[in-house]
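Work package 3, deliverable 3.1, input record:
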Amino acid sequence: MIRRYLLYLIRWQLSTPILAPVIALFKHSPSLFGTREDWIGAAIANLIGGLIFFWVDRFIFTSEKLGTVWQVHENVTCGECGKTARGYRLVKTEGYDKTKSAPQFRCEECSLKKSETLRKKGVRID
Ligand SMILES: [Zn+2]
């Protein structure tokens, strides 16, 4: 996860070349592309943003409180019928958490059947 965090921080720095000139424009910097301070300010702002929003984005994309989390992969072998197709995997929903389990994908048909079985057991699937 530390690797993802570092990549995320680097991703945020990619927006520095956009942010610095915009800051420069709005504060009427002497240089069109911004001063050294504009660039340092933008880089620090993006570092702070990355440090905070990693956790916010992680919550948005993995929290079952915001709905069911699915994983979809192309050309996988269905764990149920063995067919090679687009594979679906229910990762997380209220009362169901397979984030730490070995991934098992199912073709659409088998996934629908599995979803129905889980619904009958009371698992909420959006
Ligand atoms: Zn299948």
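The chain has two domains: 2-62, 64-120.
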